[in-house]
Amino acid sequence: MAKRTVTYEKPRGALSRKTASRSAFNWGTPQPVGPGEVFPVFAAGVVLGFFATLVCYAKGYVLLYGDAVAHLAIARRILDAHYPGLSQLGGVWLPLPHLLILPFVQKMSWWQSGLSGAPMSILSYAASVAGVWRLARRMVPARWALVATLFYALNANLLFLASTAMTEALFLALLVWSVVAAAEGIAAMRAGEVRRAQRWMLGAGVLILEQVFTRYDGWIVGAVVWCCFAWAVWRAEASLRRRFLPTFAVFTFLCVAGPVLWLGYNAKYEGDWLDWMRGPYSAKQIERKTAPPGQHYRGWHNPGWALLFYLRTAQVDASAWETGWLLLAGALTGLWMSRAERFPYLSKEAGIGTSLERPTRIQLQANSRFIWVLWVPLPFYVYSEAYGSVPIFIPQLWPHSYYNARYGMEMLPAFSLYGVYALWRLVAFLTGRPAGWAKVTVHFAHSVAVLLCVANCLAMMYRIPLVLKEGIVNATTRVPFERSLGMTLAEMPANAPVMMYTSAHVGAVQVAGRTLRSMVSEQDDVTWQKALRDPAGYAAYVIAMKGDPVDAAVLAHPEGLRELAVICTTGQPCARVYQSDRKLLR
Predict the structure, then answer these.
(1) How many helices (H) and strands (E) does the chain have?
(2) Residue 523 binned pLDDT confidence (cut-offs 50, 70, 90)
(3) 462: helix, strand or coil
(4) Region class of 19: left (phi > 0), else alpha (psi between -120 and 50), else beta
């Protein structure tokens, strides 16, 4: 069926789009961002992220997570290894964060302090804050967009993640801006702005490629964004569709290239194209090793429990105390409101008059339809917990422990935007009501909302936010052990080869300030396999931790080794340090 094209004649004396968007700025009206709006928000995010990093570094929080230590080590070994190169990226964790950390981690002091991961996380945090502002301006008036952005930016868990070498801040930035690209690009397609639509479509392709190389959640988000663009291209008028198809083909190539390249990388360097899914370091194998025999976590093969665990985690990550239930209810209500009405942004109750030109208002409607993509992490994590061997433990639910609590952070943009949207619609509904309490509510609602954003941040910090608390709890035994072992490593000659299984406690090498090239480890498989058959012949010093491959090798081939020390700390396996008589003589 032929599509009907509607054109709008520009009123005589009307201002240009750029001039109109600047002059028509109104704190009480939803409208697209104007020129120069986004950069100040980004700059403010950089300042906030920088101060958060200073605080976290001063308190020793930067290296609490063992995953952060491992990310830094992977980035470092790309150049600091017996066989440097992309083969050192590994086959489970996706490579983009390590490549972004690479320029900073090569400086030994930055690696030891953990600050080499801060530039990536600070800039990602700031970019995500700017992206939330841009999306919020499309959904609610600017004064309420400020509330949504403040609630997001002042989240204490997110501020902590902005200081450390974890992947959440980076992924949130890519997720938010992928949604921005989808909303802006499809709106431009509907408005007939071909060049602008093509730029946003290509930008979305690059963002999806980066998401795919950051977290596996990005594979699903990328597929959903591709479907949104495919639907828009298919629905476009035939003449426009022909102009969009070449760009859409490039966009599709970018979306497909990431997964294909990663599968090929695993096939070449790990020997199995699905090594990230079923290899020895995959989530499935880790869950099998850590779970008691014959037992599984609550939520395993149970989507209902998985949904409860994930939503509860997302609530606690986003809001202080038990106010997360109210936030979740508000966000779900906002989602329903945005989908229940065809044109929810042109309501008279919302105070929107005719100051916007009709094409601009239609563009607002089109953009708002795709912000729901921010909810995609919810079904992804419910499925991952139920069928992907990805447990989530929080102290509010049995077994009252801490594990993977940071995964709930991916719902923060959706909670922030849709929660504030519901609040704005409530205030708009009360506007003009004769009751005195309604007038008081309307008058003070915005100011109270801003104060609540600040109070939420302070309350989370006072109680210690969940993601930070998980890092503190899980580092209680690991950090002292790695410091003790690192001090022993630091006493060994810098160039002496040391045999050690680094996957479990590479932080000890980081503490000692040794190069990874000086270690005989599983990262150099050729020498490693030889050393396992003859430890004393390939290493001047050997560090064996109970139950690891080096321990088994020493028990099988103890000849030429002298025990120097035993390092034991609570909650960690003892490490035995040996000196090789044979290697020292060579």
Answers:
(1) 28, 5
(2) confident
(3) helix
(4) alpha
| DSSP sequence for 381-403 | HHHHHHHSS---B-TTSTT---B
Residue 9 pLDDT grade (very low, low, confident, very high; cuts 50, 70, 90): very low
Write down the residue that tokens 């790990």 correspond to: 270
**Is 277 buried (19+), middle (13-18) or exposed (0-12) by CB count in 10 A?**
middle
Residue 223 class from Cβ within 10 Å (0-12 exposed, 13-18 middle, 19+ buried)?
middle
Two tokens at 249? 């083909």
Phi and psi, residue 545, nearest 5°: -105, 140
Residue 544: helix, strand or coil by DSSP?
strand
Q: 230, 183 in Cβ contact below 8 A?
A: no
Tokens of 496: 């002496």
- Which residues are within 8 A (CB) of 322 and not within 5 positions of it... i.e. 6 or more apart? none
The more confident residue out of 341 and 347 is 341
| CB-side neighbour CA atoms (13 Å) of 199 | 5
SS3 of residue 132 by DSSP: helix
* Residue recorded with tokens 């491959």: 549
Token pair, residue 62, equals 């930067």
List b or e across 532-564, with b for residues whose CB sees 16 or more CB atoms inside 10 angstroms.
bebbbebbbbbbbbeebbbbebbeebeebbeee
Backbone φ and ψ of 500, nearest 5°: -160, 145
pTM of the entire predicted model: 0.91
Q: Specify whether the CB–CB gap between 565 and 572 falls below 8 A.
A: no
CA distance 296 to 300: 6
Interacting residues of 518 by C-beta distance below 8 A, sequence separation 6+: 494, 495, 496, 497, 498
Query: What does 57-76 look like in DSSP terms, one character per residue?
Result: HHTT-TT-SHHHHHHHHHHH
pLDDT at 340 over 50: yes
> Which residue matches tokens 């928000």?
41
CA distance 199 to 194: 9
CB 39 within 8 A of CB 131: no
**Interacting residues of 9 by C-beta distance below 8 A, sequence separation 6+:** none
- For residues 292 and 131, the model is more confident at 131
* Residues 6+ away with beta carbon under 8 Å from 556: none
CA dist 352 and 364 (Å) reads 12
Tokens standing for 412? Answer: 């923060």
Domain coordinates in residue numbering, the chain = 478-585
Q: Which of 150, 78, 177, 66 is nearest to 114 (CA)?
A: 66
DSSP letters, 106-167, are: TSHHHHHHSGGGHHHHHHHHHHHHHHHHHHHHHHS-HHHHHHHHHHHHT-HHHHHHTTSS-S
**Dihedral sign from CA coordinates of 86, 91, 97, 103:** negative
